[in-house]
Specification:
The complex is a heterodimer. Chain A is of the alpha+beta class. Chain A has helices spanning 40-47, 104-111, 121-134, 142-149, 160-177, and strands at 19-25, 28-34, 66-69, 72-75, 88-90. Classes of the chains: A alpha+beta, B alpha+beta. The complex binds FE2/S2 (inorganic) cluster (FES) (2 copies).
């Protein structure tokens, strides 16, 4: 291909109006100027580079984009970045220890083979995390667990191992709490 | 010897990164200065394009380029027909990257916009005005092939894309001898793979080195590389295609070329900037690919004792507006339809039919769920008509263990080779499931329940699956000198199946390391330029055996070098715990040291390179440092090419409860017995089977790619295409049997698709049983919905007793 000069200058960013937003992500407070229509999911992924939050539908059904917004699981694809003004966001990147040691929920997923492609996984982990924080002593019956998981889609696993992982996560958490793990 | 890894439920090396959110899916890869593509897609199924007005889009300062068919030069031509076949009507149709003058389905790409971000690109797409002249359409397969039906392609009469007849044995003679003949007509609707990560592609052109780098969420990077090199006239070695983490594929990502796979690299080259296209969910529904729609009319010829002598099946296969993948899906259906049964006389005919809908390419199961539904519905009906128990009828017709290899002369499978079942213990699998279910106990429970106004039903479905197709795959095993880690490379890709882990197990057993110390490299054409792709449940079978062969060679090299280094005979060496040990002693040399010592050039980078010099030389020879005919380091490649497909099989059974008030169905038990030969990793096999069952449940009850009569896709989001959540999928009981395949050294068969195949049949069969007291007509459709069941029920109630 012959080398030619670009036909017109390419702007660095769109000419959308910008608004400042200040929020806390994984414990760090930051201010950014964003397009008012930017989705929180895109903000987290592309402005902050936290690409562990995934996008599977952008219409609020799959749960891949689940993050914790002020402590509760929320769909970052149904939230605008500017709506998160002042909010405290937690993403999958904050879940393991800084040295990489997996959180009990993550460890349980690994032990129980509750992930295949791993695309849905951060969403499940965040949803379970938020549930266990709100409900430390969950009902561990099959139906109750499946109900908890019913906000997230997985195309790979058929859910069986995610149900097992939920139970195992509670076990691991309790073992760690008593110094056993 | 260390514990054998082959056969153990080894955990996956890939998991921690994925769990921490550190995966590398295509949209996660940072590309400085990347531009973003979006597409204008047809709003009509079939229409002439009067005009496309792109002026407003081009005037947007944030838009970098707009492409229509007029702007893509030589690329404005039909995309390749990947698998030509003589049965395809002359001029088999494939789509152009961008529509020229007319469109053939709603969702077809008409223009591509490249802009500074996706938001702007989508705005600009909205600003492009397309003036259409809609044309009449016919979506019903039976009406589409009738004379006078509107044509999808003006030069293809009766919309028949392909017509193919195959015969094995003498079907006419079988029907002449028949004492009982039974016919079933079944209808299956469109569905789609819907991987949770939609399709995605990014490209970067380096105009200084002339290298085109493409990240493609594909199942077939090597083929994509070859295609791109030829389309753009670039030396193949200057095109690198990488499939990084891919969020599920299920067949949809084996298809190439989707228009974006060519247009995104084109834009990257023309604009000299990285370009990204991340398909969104709506586009995946309307523009990627679908499968499953077929109508079968299947007839069995039997003796009174239930022996099935002959089978005739004539079916229509919906191929969508184009036939890029040839007749593969329909051919797999037609060669799988005799199932596990002997049936000596088989006649199968199909017509692939163009419809004004998104193209059809393989989706997990690839024609087999349809074939299974047809034959198993027919077997159930035959059993009922002859008054023979459904299990017993099947038992009487199974190919017996001593009849393998069982060839169906005259039936050619999709790989072009005769259908040839390699091994199986079908009756044993059936016995296993009978034992699990305890049928007499169930019948008692069913009777009690009925008395209380609750309706239980039991159903089953048997399936066979040709897996592990050729032609070949390669494997390379390499010891890393610094770390002693073992690198395993193959050309095919992983979309979550866990290939890296099963390959690690295969290698670990040969070189004596832990699977965690094996690093898997796949899906990168630079790392392994030779190979085929991930499809047809073939990765473990074909790559697995290639890697096994390469590992055996690497093992021999390690043993030889270690024997020299430790100054003992080779038969005194055993490989375990990451090193080579003198048998019965405590002297050893680590794999890192062996790797270092076998390279005549070494720098003392680390401990192992220093300690390696304390041993005797790894090679004993005179002359130059590298002996003639050897190569530095431990690195071995090999290939495996199976003689033909290996046939996995299984049987599923379910107990359901039907509520006549709401027409809701509760799956109370779901049991699966399956056999994929020797198992490498039971944890992963279970995961594959359960995932398949989950998709099968979706396909049986919830998921439907419906279209309006004028061809508008009605399922274009997860609001309309109801993928099951955890609340809809039962906790299936999974049982393995292991009948090794004689066709490969490891004795394995594929498992990727198995779980999906029989589910619609199992549930139809169970429902039919539950419906008995209501006199409801037999179930002949998939998927079923409560409203369809309600209609059947109403019909039955209206019928005079
Ligand atoms: S991406 Fe947000 S719910 Fe699917
Ligand atoms: S693991 Fe692939 S979608 Fe859940």
């Amino acid at each position: 291909m012959a080398r030619s000069l670009p036909s017109k200058p390419i702007p660095a960013a769109s000419s959308d109006p910008r608004r400042e937003v200040t929020l806390t992500v994984n414990g760090e407070t930051l201010t950014r100027s964003v397009s008012p229509r930017m989705l929180l999911s895109d903000f987290i992924r592309h402005e902050l580079g936290l690409t562990g939050t995934h996008v599977g539908c952008e219409h609020g059904v799959c749960g891949c984009c689940t993050v914790l917004i002020d402590g509760r699981a929320g769909r970052s694809c149904l939230t605008l970045a500017v709506q998160a003004e002042g909010a405290e966001i937690r993403t999958i990147e904050s879940v393991a220890r800084p040295d990489g040691t997996l959180h009990p929920v993550q460890q349980a997923f690994m032990e129980c083979h509750a992930l295949q492609c791993g695309f849905c996984t951060p969403g499940f982990v965040m949803a379970i995390l938020s549930y266990l924080e709100e409900t430390p002593q969950p009902d561990l019956s099959e139906d109750a667990i499946r109900e908890v998981l019913s906000g997230n889609l997985c195309r790979c696993t058929g859910y069986k191992n995610i149900v097992r992982a939920f139970r195992r996560a509670v076990e691991l958490r309790d073992a760690r709490a008593t110094g056993g793990g | 010897m260390s514990t054998r890894q082959f056969g153990a439920p080894v955990q996956r090396n890939a998991d921690p990164a994925l769990l921490r959110g550190e995966g590398a899916f295509i949209d996660d890869i940072p590309l400085a200065g990347a531009l973003h593509a979006a597409f204008v897609r047809s709003a009509h199924a079939r229409a002439r394009i009067r005009s496309i007005d792109t002026r407003a889009a081009r005037a947007n300062p944030d838009v970098v380029a707009v492409y229509t068919a007029d702007d893509i030069g030589a690329l404005d031509a039909p995309l390749p027909l990947l698998i030509p076949h003589p049965s395809i009507t002359a001029g088999g149709k494939t789509q152009r990257p961008l529509a020229r003058d007319e469109v053939f389905y709603a969702g077809q790409c008409i223009a591509m916009v490249v802009a500074v971000d996706r938001y702007t690109a989508e705005d600009a797409c909205e600003a492009i005005a397309v003036d259409y002249e809609p044309l009449p359409v016919e979506l019903d397969l039976e009406k589409a092939v009738a004379d006078g039906a509107p044509l999808v392609h003006d030069d293809i009469p009766n919309n028949v894309a392909a017509h193919f007849i195959q015969e094995s044995g003498d079907a006419d003679a079988a029907f002449a001898r028949a004492e009982h003949v039974t016919t079933v007509k079944v209808r299956l609707e469109r569905s789609t793979a819907a991987p949770l990560e939609c399709r995605a592609i990014a490209a970067r052109w380096d105009r200084v080195t002339g290298e085109l780098m493409v990240w493609d969420g594909t199942q077939a990077p090597i083929a994509v590389r070859g295609g791109l090199a030829s389309v753009f006239g670039i030396d193949e070695d200057n095109v690198r295609v990488v499939a990084p983490n891919v969020g599920g594929g299920f067949g949809q990502k084996i298809m190439m070329f989707h228009p974006d796979e060519i247009l995104v690299p084109l834009a990257a080259m023309e604009l000299d900037r990285p370009v990204k296209y991340i398909e969104d969910r709506v586009e995946n529904f309307i523009g990627a690919s679908q499968e499953r729609a077929q109508i079968h009319e299947i007839t069995l010829a039997a003796l009174k004792d239930g022996t099935v002598l002959g089978l005739r099946d004539s079916f229509l296969h919906d191929t969508g507006a184009f036939i890029p993948y040839g007749i593969a899906v329909a051919q797999v259906s037609s060669t799988s339809v005799a199932g596990p049964y002997r049936i000596p006389g088989i006649w199968v005919e199909f017509k692939a039919v163009y419809t004004p809908c998104v193209q059809v390419t393989p989706y997990r199961g690839c024609g087999r769920p349809q074939a299974c539904f047809a034959i198993e519905r027919a077997m159930d009906q035959l059993a009922d008509e002859l008054g023979i128990d459904r299990f017993e009828l099947r038992r009487r017709n199974f190919i017996a263990p001593d009849e393998f290899p069982y060839r169906r002369e005259g039936l050619l499978f999709a790989d072009g080779l005769a259908v040839n079942y390699d091994s199986g213990e079908y009756a044993q699998a059936l016995d296993r499931i009978v034992g699990e279910i305890d049928l007499p106990a169930f019948r008692a429970e069913q009777a009690e329940a009925r008395a209380e106004g609750r309706y239980l039903g039991f159903g089953l479905g048997f399936y066979v699956e040709a897996t592990g197709l050729g032609p070949y795959e390669g494997g390379r095993v390499k010891l890393h000198p610094i770390t002693g880690k073992v690198y395993v490379t193959t050309g095919l890709t992983d979309q979550g199946q866990g290939h890296g882990t099963v390959f690690a197990q295969i290698v670990a057993d040969q070189v004596g390391c832990a699977p965690a110390d094996v690093v898997f490299v796949g899906g990168d054409t630079q790392a392994q330029p030779w190979g085929v792709a991930t499809f047809a449940s073939r990765a473990a079978v074909v790559s697995g055996n290639a890697i096994h062969k390469a590992a055996l060679r690497a093992r021999a090299q390690i043993v030889q070098a270690a024997a020299n280094m430790l100054e003992v005979e080779q038969d005194e060496i055993e490989l375990r715990d990451g090193g080579a040990w003198i048998r019965g002693g405590n002297r050893s040399v680590s794999l890192a040291e062996v790797a270092t010592a076998t390279n005549p050039l070494r720098y003392a980078f680390n401990e192992s390179s220093k300690t390696a010099t304390q041993f005797a030389p790894a090679s004993r020879h005179d002359g130059p440092p590298l002996a003639e005919g050897t190569h530095p380091g431990i690195e071995e490649s090999d290939y495996f090419s199976p003689p033909h497909a290996t046939w996995a099989y299984g049987v599923h059974a379910a107990i359901v409860e039907f509520d006549p008030e709401t027409c809701a169905i509760d799956i109370r038990r779901y049991v699966c017995v399956h056999d994929c030969g020797t198992i490498i990793n039971p944890m992963i096999v279970d995961g594959q089977v359960m995932g398949g069952i989950g998709q099968g449940i979706g396909g049986a009850f919830y998921e439907r790619c419906a279209y309006s009569e004028d061809g508008a896709p009605l399922a274009a989001s997860f609001m309309d295409f109801l993928m099951p959540y955890a609340t809809e999928v039962p906790d299936a009981e999974l049982i393995h049997t292991e009948t090794p395949s004689p066709l490969n050294p490891l004795g394995i068969k594929g498992v990727g698709e198995a779980g999906t195949i029989p589910v619609s049949q199992v549930l139809a069969s169970a429902l039919e049983d539950a419906f008995q007291p209501f006199g409801i007509a037999p179930v002949r459709e998939s998927p079923l919905s409560p409203s369809m069941i309600h209609a059947l029920l109403r019909e039955a109630r209206a019928r005079p007793a």
